[in-house]
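User: Hey, my collaborator sent me this sequence without any context and asked if I could get a structure. I don't really work with proteins. Can you help?
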Amino acid sequence: MTTARLFSKWYTDSRNVAFQYDREADILHISSRPPYAEQESEELGDDVIARLNPKTGDVESLEVLFFSTRLLRSDLFELPVTADLHRAG
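Assistant: No problem. I've predicted the 3D structure and written it out in structure-token form, which is a compact way to encode the shape of the chain:
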């Protein structure tokens, strides 16, 4: 199943944020929209990849590599982005 098909079932509103864990690849996907070919990628450090809107530069999704190993650490896990979160609906 493609990543786009995997995510498409969670998006009913473009403002929602979806979390999807890929066990086989050990990647946590955090997305506000399904991936698309034009998105740009940027390594943010600490094995976190951002998918960016090519026109605005806004972060549309994050991929956290080696996610399961982060859960075993005792230190705080922070993402190198800021967020303005609101309740959906």
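In plain terms: The CA atoms of residues 3 and 52 lie 16 Å apart. You can pass these tokens on to your collaborator as they are.
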